[in-house]
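Z., the sequence and structure:
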Amino acid sequence: MKLTANRSFLKPVAYVVGVALAIYQIIFTGGFYVLEPPLLRGVHLAAIMIMVFLLVPPFAKYKGKEEPIIFIGIDILLCCIAVAIGCYFYVELENLLNRIVYVDEVTTVDLWLGTACILLVLEITRRTTGFPLFCVAVAFLLYALFGDLLPTSIGHNGISYDRLVEMQFLLSDGIFGTCLATGATMIFAFIMFGAFLERSNMSSVFMDLACLLTKRSKGGPAKVAIFASALFGTISGSSPANVYSTGIFTIPLMKRVGYSPSFAGAVESVASTGGQLMPPVMGAAAFIMADITGLGYVSIATAAILPSVLFYWALLSMIHLEAVRKDLGYLPPELVPDTKTVFRKLYYLAPIFILIAALYMGRSVIASAFFATASIVVLSFFSKETRLNFRGLCDALFLSSKNAMMISSCCAAAGIIVGVITISGVGYKFISVITDLAGNNLFLLMLYLAVTCIVLGMGVPTAPAYVIVATLGAPALMKAGVPMISSHLFVFYFAILSVITPPVCVTAFAGAAIAEAHPMKTGFVSCKLGIVAFIIPFMFVYQPALLLIGDTFDVIQACVTSIIGVLGLAAGLQGYMLTEAKVWERPVLLAGGLMMIYPGTYTDFIGLGVMAAVAALHLVRKRSMPGAAV
C-alpha cells in the first residue's frame, strides 16, 4: 500500500520562514545593519530553498493534493541541506571574504556543499518556473564540464570540477553573483512593495481607475486591460502572473462586448508584457541592468520612458481602431465604479508617487522601495478596507517572501549560466561569431541578436532571460560602437518580447487559456499588437533621441513625431484610419508611420505628408458615406 499525505501541515513552518526572511531583508538591506554580501546572499538563498521545498511539490500534479509521503520526507531532507548551506556561509564568512582565486584549496566540504547547492538551485528553478530555464542551466553546466571535447571554434581548454564548484559556490561570479545580489536586495524590496499594496487592497484602485477612465470609450474593456495591466504590471515580476491577476476580469469583459477570443487574450498578454517595460519599476530585470551597467536605475528608467509610452500608445490605438471598425460596445454600466468613491481612493496611489519622488531625489533604489512600503502601512490605517492589523502585516511579509521564490530561484540559476560564460570564455566566441556573420552591417548584427535574444528567452522568466542575452549580446553591440544603455535596452526588449513571440509565447498562452482561444493564433495576434516593441529598439540604436538622450530640441521632436508615427503604424496594421483602408493604403500608412518614428527632419516631413494624404482621402470617402463611425 502506497503511503500518501498532504503537505499542508508544512505551511505553518513555511509561513514562519517567510516572515523571518522578510524581516531579515528589512533589517539587513533596509539600512539598519550592514551584512557582508556572501552571508546576506547565502542566507537569503537558503531561506528561499526552504520555502520552495516546503510549499511546492516536486511534480505539479500533486499541487494541493496528496502525494507519496517519501516525497515529503525527501523535501524535508533537502530543507536540512539548505540550512547547512546557510550555516556554511556564516561559519566560513572570513575565509570566503579573503579567498584567493585558484590558489586556496577547494576542500571536500566545499565540494559536497557546492555540488548540493548547484543541484538544489536547479531543482527550485524547475519547481518554480518549469523546465526551460532548468534545461538551459544544465546545458551550460555540461558545456563547462565537457566543452573541451568540442571543436576549437566553440569549445574551451577544459575546466576541472573543483574549479567549476569554486566559481559557482565560493566566488561572487556564479550562483552568488550579481543576479542573486540584485534579487536579494533591490528586487526583493520592490516585491515587498507590491505585496503590501496587494495585501492592503490598495492596488484595487488600479482597476477602479481604469474602469472609470474608459467608461465612455468604445471597446472600453480592452482599454481597461491596458491601464490596469500597465499600472499593475509595473510592480509585478512576471508577465504571465500579471495576465492571471488582471486578465480574469478584463478578458471575459472584452469577449462580452464583441472582441474575438484570440484578440482579447492577445490584448491582455501584450498589455501585461508592457508592464515589464514601463517605468517607474520595469520589473526585476531593470534592476539587474542597473547593476550590470553601473548606469544607475534612474538613468535606465528615464531612457525607457518614451519607448514604453509608444508601446502602450500603439496598443491603445490598435484597440481603438478595432473597436471603431467593428462598432464594439462600451463597458457595462454596472462595472463602472462611482466617481466619488474612486476619487476618495486616489490617495492609494500616493506610495507610487513617493517611490518616484524618492528615486529622483537621489535616494537608493532599496531605500526608495522601503520608504514607499512604509507609506503603505501608514496610509492603510486611513480606511477600514485597507487597514493592516498584526496578522495583515505578517501576511504581507510572508507574501513578499513567497512572491520572491520564483525570482530568486531564477536569479540563482542565471548565476550558474553567467558563471559558466565567465569561466569558459564562450561569451567572447559568441560575439566573434555574430560579428563575423554580420560583417560591418549594424542592421544585420541587430537582426541576428534580436532573433538570438528571442530564442534564448523563450520560456525563460524576464530576469534570467535578460541576464543571458546581456552577457552574450550586449557586448557585441558595444563592440560595434553602440552606447552601453542602447545596447542593454535593445537586448532587454527582445528578451522580454520572447513571451509573446511564437512558438513559445508563454504569456500569450496564459491569455489564450483564460480567453478559451487558440494558443498559437493568440500568439500571432500578440505579435501584431506588440509590433512597436519589435521596431523601437532598432530605432533607438540609430537615434538615441528616442531614449531622451541628446539635444532638447531633438528629444522633443522625437517625442512628438514618434507619437504621430505610431498612429500611422496602428492604422496600417488594423486597415482602418478614418474609414476602411484600401489594400494599397495599408503599406503606405506603415511606411509613413515608420518614417515618423525614426527621428529625422526629412523622414518626419515625408512621413507626415504620406499620412496626411491618406487621411485626406479617408475624409473624402467618409463624407460620401454619412452615418459612418468616426
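Residues 390-424 form the longest helix (35 residues). The beta strands are 4-5, 67-68.

Let me know what you think.
H.
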